[in-house]
Amino acid sequence: MKLRELLNGLTILSSSADLDADIREVRYDSRAVEAGDLFVAITGAETDGHKYIPMAREKGAACVVCQTAPEDGTPYVQVADSRRALAVIGANRFDHPADELTMIGVTGTSGKTTSTYLIKSILEQKAGARVGLIGTIQNMIGDRVLHTERTTPESYELQKLLREMADAGCSHVVMEASSHALYLDRVYGIRYAVGVYTNLSRDHLDFHHTMEEYCDAKAILFDNCDVGVYNADDPWHERLLQNARCPRRFSYAVHTQADLTAKNVQLHPGSVDFDAEADTEWAQVHVDTPALFTVYNALDAMACCWNLGVPLAECADALAKSHGVKGRMEIIPTPGKSYTILNDYSHKPDALENVLQSVKGFAKGRTVVLFGCGGDRDKTKRPVMGAIAAQLADFVIVTSDNPRTEKPEAIIADILEGMKDTATPYVTIPDRVEAIHYAMDHAQPGDVIILAGKGHEDYQEINHKHYPMDERVIVAAHLNK
User: Fold this and answer.
1) In the chain, fewer beta carbons within 10 Å around the N or the C end?
2) 3-state secondary structure of 80
3) 247 and 158 belong to one structural domain
4) Cβ contact 161:134 at 8 Å
5) What is the mean pLDDT of residues 422-447?
6) What residues make up the domain containing 154?
């Protein structure tokens, strides 16, 4: 492809490159550059791609796109924002695949993954759609599973994935739009038919610094969608909507009046039932996931699909047939035992609180929670999660999550700061496998044991290495001893 074609739509500040040069491939990682490639120098989380322009030139890059012109004679194209340029170049390279798809974006602190799966299920069952999915657990084209490394791919990889989905016959794509992705322009240039906002609570403050900045990053989605679906029960929705440029807004709620409202909510040990009302439509809803937040996930999925033309009753029928999501209030089989084990991805304060409150609503015995906090991430949430666990659980096992480069004992000490003076009994067991064994060995009849934090993950990250750790496998192996 000609360099000129890749740069279409960009404002070029200055250039020393031959715009008619043939470009073999586009790279934003200098280590992957080969002769004839275009290297786009972007600023990453840990380093600045401009530092690696000499490496890209040595490896044969035909040209670099950058914000600061190099002084070593490397052919360059200077732009104001190389991150946005990468998104535009990606769209040009793959012939604007988003324009061929009905795009749906879901943002929020919690509930993104479950909501995207529910939306996909409704559209496939009731709209005859072939749906691509992009998210935390996996990417999917219909039923085909693709590998995923982050919640929202880098912009160039995203455009490549969207082209693959469009060519595979997808009519819709539902994707998680993380705050990082929105702020870092990974989804720049994409217009969404529907943008969905789930909620906002304390998370990623190591990156966004304040809750206001965090909310403003989420709000970017509502500047780039036709319909903005939002949770009217969430206190941050007003700030989110302050300057939102979406032409239409649609609310859902449980506790306040909204365009779509849930009433008569009934929580059961393995499911939840409620009545959904929107305009002149009404439907009884049943979802096989036992939690109050399931109601919100179901509501935002229904609101999204209703705005895409699926009647409320059809949405409800599809939800009743939908399967649970791996690592989201997932029941791990314990045949022959009188206790229940739930696996959930709740690694944030609000998610842990929601899970504990839901379990206490149906547990016949004790509510036991096993959790840790991720290393090299927001430290301020650690004592908060400790306090939540001590307040809502009957017994707490503090252990490791993904310690990364931190010492597990130091992370546990931070968590325990929030558990000072608690009357709730607890133990600390840094080794997560040993902690799970302890929970099972000391379980009492009727107990519900919540393995919180890992969810769908089948590894533990320690010092930049991933070690196999699937909690389903750990439980099964211990039962078979």
Assistant:
1) C
2) coil
3) yes
4) yes
5) 98
6) 97-320
> Given this model, what pLDDT does residue 179 score?
83
Give the mean pLDDT of 396-409: 98
Inter-CA distances, 58 with 20, 44, 166, Å: 21, 21, 36
Look at residue 204 and tell me whether its pLDDT is greater than 60.
Answer: no
- One domain for residues 85 and 109: no
For residue 433, count other CB atoms closer than 10 A to its CB. 16
Q: How far apart (Å, rounded) are the C-alpha atoms in residues 328 and 323?
A: 11
Whole-number pLDDT of residue 218? 87
This prediction's pTM:
0.85
Q: Is the pLDDT of residue 208 over 60?
A: no
Q: Residue 321's closest CA among 262, 254, 384, 271?
A: 271
273 and 296 within one domain = yes
Q: Are residues 269 and 150 in the same domain?
A: yes
As a whole number of angstroms, the distance between CA 194 and CA 228 comes to 6
Rg (C-alpha) for the chain, rounded Å, is: 24
Residue 166 has pLDDT above 70, yes or no: yes
30/49 Cα distance (integer angstroms): 8
- How far apart, in Å, are the Cα atoms of 226 and each of 101, 139, 245, 256? 14, 24, 9, 24
